[in-house]
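Long-time lurker, first post. I've been practising inverse folding by hand and with some scripts of my own, and I keep getting stuck on stretches where the structure tokens seem ambiguous. Below is the full token string for one chain I'm working on. Before anyone asks, I'm not after the true native sequence, just a reasonable design that respects the backbone. If someone could post their per-position residues I'd love to compare against what I wrote down in my notebook.
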């Protein structure tokens, strides 16, 4: 029986990683795509470790919020008028006001 366990477990050990390696892979996945091997190693680890699953969930939530805020900031900055356009609007308004007063 022990011999069979060794035969079955040996290939599985290649896929097993520590919590430290799992958190590294999760962080790495935010910057660049993981290799197929890394994806599977992380997935296998997350199936067996509730603490890393919690970390994974929290990081994913933070990442989503960062993406939302980044998108909002990009939209906000694209909606702002340049100083040149602001000056033109001020001049037009001043002309309009001056012409209505006279």
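-- Answer (accepted) --
I ran through it position by position. Result:
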């Amino acid at each position: 029986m022990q011999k069979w366990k060794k035969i079955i477990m040996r290939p599985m050990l290649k896929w097993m990683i520590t919590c430290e390696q799992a958190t590294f892979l999760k962080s790495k996945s935010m910057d660049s795509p993981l290799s197929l091997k890394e994806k599977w190693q992380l997935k296998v680890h997350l199936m067996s470790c509730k603490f890393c699953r919690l970390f994974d969930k929290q990081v994913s939530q933070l990442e989503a919020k960062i993406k939302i805020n980044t998108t909002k900031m990009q939209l906000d900055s694209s909606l702002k008028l340049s100083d040149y356009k602001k000056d033109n609007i001020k001049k037009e308004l001043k002309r309009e006001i001056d012409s209505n007063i006279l």
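A couple of notes from the structure itself: The first helix runs from residue 2 to 13. Residues 13 and 40 are 12 Å apart (CA to CA). Happy to go over any region you disagree with.
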